[in-house]
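Weekly structure sync, notes
Attendees: PL (lead), two postdocs, one rotation student
Agenda item 3: pending single-chain targets
PL asked that the sequence for the first pending target be pasted directly into the notes so everyone works from the same version. It is reproduced below exactly as submitted, 144 residues in total.
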Amino acid sequence: MRLNSIKPAAGSKQNSKRVGRGIGCGSGKTCGRGHKGQRSRSGGYHKVGFEGGQMPIQKRLPKVGFSSRVSTTAAKVRLCDLAQVTAEVVDLESLKAVGVVKKNVKTVKIYLSGTVASAITVKGLAVSKGAKEAIEAAGGKVEE
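Predicted structure, written out during the meeting:
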């Protein structure tokens, strides 16, 4: 192989369309731009993100972060924090009574962090897979 014999693959290179060369070429006179309007003019096109005068999306959206309102009423509880609850059944009300979660919390999820010593019953709370296995290994149970 020699440098003068290197060629691109067949069909990979196409000749550019020559516009404005008379009616015989199929793209003469208006050169494929149609008649009148902004896109037909030389140098006449809009900037990126322009929406025809409508307020663009990048200006409509807020420039600061977003925090979900659900996060104010949802809480995560460690498995080791369940030891603070003295009741046999751990539910939302018992967690609020002990002060593990705030009073305005509506949903709680228990996740695996630490260990659970006694057999407890978790009722009406979301439980992660690992936390569920740990509770059941300690002799407790999880009720939906």
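Discussion points:
- Residues 111 and 128 are 5 Å apart (CA to CA).
- The chain has a mean pLDDT of 92.
Action: rotation student to compare against the earlier draft before next sync.
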